[in-house]
Amino acid sequence: PRWSHGRAALVGDAAYCPSPVSGMGASLALVGAYVLAGELARHANHQAAFAAYEQLMRPYVTLAQKLPPGVPWIAHPKSRLGVSLLHRVLWLASGPLLPLRQRLSGASPADKIDLPDYSIALPPLG
């Protein structure tokens, strides 16, 4: 229900539990680490930083956790029909129509967050 307790906060797979099928594990981990570090630099106390981190990340994580209909079932077929369907999907995904299909279906969940600029929260180096 929350990604922090006391003075500890979770990021990456430990916090967000993305499906391996989503392909979002590394993106979530990197964005989460960036946002957590930025919020810790921006806020005077860790409780406020953790709350802001979760408020910014929760919608992004929720979107990344959504899987298309039929996933992950299609990757684990249990019948001849299922195996045939998997082969057809893989054939379509590897074909030249993939870029067209991606444009029609919208952007990746990785593109669905506006990252804050934390450079103003950090003291100058040196």
Q: What's the structural blueprint in terms of helices and strands?
A:
Blueprint: E1 4-5, E2 8-9, H1 13-16, H2 25-42, H3 46-65, H4 80-94, H5 98-105
Antiparallel strand pairs: 1-2
Detailed description of the structure:
Helix content is 52%, strand content 3%. With 126 residues, it is mainly α. α2 (25-42) packs antiparallel against α3. The radius of gyration is 19 Å and the shape is elongated. The N and C termini lie far apart (40 Å).
Number of helices: 5
Oligomer: single chain
> Could you give the order of strands across the largest sheet?
1-2
Q: What percent of residues are in strands?
A: under 5%
Largest sheet, strands/sense/barrel: 2 strands, antiparallel
Structural class: mainly alpha
Helix proportion range: 40-55%
Features:
126 residues; mainly alpha; two-stranded antiparallel sheet; 5 helices; 3% strand; elongated
Short description:
The protein is mostly helical. The chain has five helices and two strands, in the order E-E-H-H-H-H-H.
